[in-house]
Amino acid sequence: MTSNTAEKGTVLVTGASRGLGRALAGLYAAAGCRVIACMRQGGDVPLDVADPASIAALGERLEGEPIDIVINNAAVRGDTGGLESLETDDFLEVMRINALAPLLLARALRPNLRAGGRKVLVNISSRAGSLAEGTLDDEDGDYAYRCSKAALNMATVKLAQDFRRDGIAVISLHPGWVRTDMGGEEAAVDVAESAAGLKALIDATTLAESGSFRAYDGRTVAW
Ligand SMILES: NC(=O)c1ccc[n+]([C@@H]2O[C@H](COP(=O)([O-])OP(=O)(O)OC[C@H]3O[C@@H](n4cnc5c(N)ncnc54)[C@H](OP(=O)(O)O)[C@@H]3O)[C@@H](O)[C@H]2O)c1
Fold it and tell me: Considering the domain boundaries, does residue 220 fall inside one?
């Protein structure tokens, strides 16, 4: 690491192999940050967020390293069919990856964030998990995904309360409906536009914003 990248800070991104995670990792690298791009295969650091042992191993591997920003981005959609096609294993897998893993990551990397300069933990959530707004635009089934992101939003609120004593801000962000593998080709927002909006919000985050839920375009999303 050069002294320049050290000054710009260290950013850890989960699910950096493609989609928004890759775009965010690229933006922070282009901005001169040291990026720890976590992926199931390849990447700087191996991480399967579905596996608590893999998360614990990441914490051990990074022990003693200050990290400025942690971005919990990795997620899966699961079955989208609705109540009739809901299956226990699929639901639990989506909850494990989208809701539990960010909490385990937060716990594992809390010392790193405490040692970092910026002290920001980002949960990439979704408006689909908003109790107030999640069902306004579409009637997709998506039980597992919506429930997982609603749970993630509570994790944000709870972690914001918990981490405040360490000076760590915790936020939920909605990236918009983005043209990625998850969002599909019909999605409204280009991945570069979404990632740029998310980065601007992350970079402006202080403890005053902790516990908030914003969209990539700056709009506040109702919980
Ligand atoms: N796209 C949208 O319209 C949209 C809307 C609202 C919210 N979001 C949220 O935005 C974030 C990024 O979504 P995206 O559209 O970029 O999705 P994507 O293109 O499907 O990419 C998902 C990423 O998560 C990783 N991932 C999945 N399971 C993992 C695991 N067990 N361990 C480690 N990594 C894992 C994938 O890695 P592999 O390559 O190894 O599979 C991939 O890098 C997610 O949190 C998503 O819920 C997206």
Answer: no
